[in-house]
Amino acid sequence: MSAPSRQRPRPRPADLLGPARRRLPRYLHDLAELVAIDSGSYNPDGVNAVADRVQARLTSLGFAVERIRPPAAAEPPFDAPRTGDVLVARKAGSLAEADGGRRILLAAHMDTVFEDGTAAERPFTLDGTRVYGPGVSDDKGGLLAGLTALELLQEQGEAEYAELVFLATPDEEIGSPTSRTVTEEVARGVHYALGLECARENGDLVLARKGVADFRLTVTGRAAHAGIEPERGANAALAAAHLVVALQALNGRWDGVTVNVGVVRAGHRTNIVCPEAELRLEVRAATAADARRVRRAIDDAAACPPVPGTAVTVEQLDDCPPMEATAASHRMLAAAEQAAAALGFTLGATATGGVGDANLIAGTGVPVLDGLGPVGGADHSPQEWLDTATVPQRVALLASLITALGDSGSDT
């Protein structure tokens, strides 16, 4: 049986551009308010002040909003810094899944990398078409663009989707330690995910992100007096040095894979043959298959330490899956390119080595397209900026993409 016809014509991108332009003054006013809030990852009160404003906007749009407070640490250190709430909002559409309705997730984060006091030191500033301030691009500009796009859809009476889900996390800038489980639970079962990080400086969307894994290698040797009987020792520092060379040599073996030994610790005294050493390394890979290949190579290197009497143990401390470009995400990009053309600009896409919540969503098997906020740049620096001239186009693009995906009926 074919899906029923739409109850009303789908809004054209051009229909959304004018309303988006009219909303620009309010967008800038609200962005200035958000940037004025210190909301570093370890400032739960500041992050929750942002969440209060997001919640109010979503409630006014008919979303049911849930605030999830991260639990206290269940293991040492029990005094670990807390983060703000995770915000999850849902709104049912008019189109059943059985009739081709799709569940669409919009994801943004509320925290920044900046310390308390930065908002006062570097307040929101408009210079021509650019605005400056802490978090203006990463990610308060994208967060607000998502809310504005949802307001456009309500204004147009567009509700032909199964469900819209809005996720705002409090700790993306520190690897999402408290929100990861919620993000993965929310992502499971949605058909498409739209990441609200701002577009690259050249306007590109983000089609793929590398995954990241952190490892600790502990090298155990045998202590001995370095001057009297060094032959009785097994130098863990020497074994670690060989391992550093072997691990760094993995760079270039697979396209898109980087390995970096960033921390090396060994020994305590110069007159003792070093009995223990530690390496910390980071691996970034564009695909899950390559990540598995690197892990096997690390294990192989650890299994055969070059110094007799030493042994190596490998621990994986963290793992963030890659956001891989898939056939479904390419179809999402094609829909975005079509909408951009109707709005009068050309859209590109790129892959990046940086990670974010989009990685966690992609790790559940959901196709993701990221970078759908306005154009910005110099993230994490005093020069962070957002191009206000791109706000109306990018808001209209996002709203158009939601309408295109909401009742597409295409398989992912």
From TrEMBL:
Cofactor: Zn(2+)
Entries under CDD domains matching the protein: M20_CPDG2 (cd03885)
InterPro entries: ArgE/DapE_CS, Bact_exopeptidase_dim_dom, Pept_M20_glutamate_carboxypep, Peptidase_M20, Peptidase_M20_dimer, Peptidase_M20A
Keywords: Hydrolase, Metal-binding, Zinc
Single Gene Ontology MF annotation: hydrolase activity
Active-site residue numbers: 111, 172
Domain (Peptidase M20 dimerisation) ranges: 208-302
Pfam families from the UniProt entry: M20_dimer (PF07687), Peptidase_M20 (PF01546)
Top-rank lineage group of the source organism: Bacteria
PANTHER family, sorted: ACETYLORNITHINE DEACETYLASE (PTHR43808), BLL0789 PROTEIN (PTHR43808:SF9)
Name of the protein described by the UniProt record: M20 family metallopeptidase
Species this protein is from: Streptomyces chromofuscus
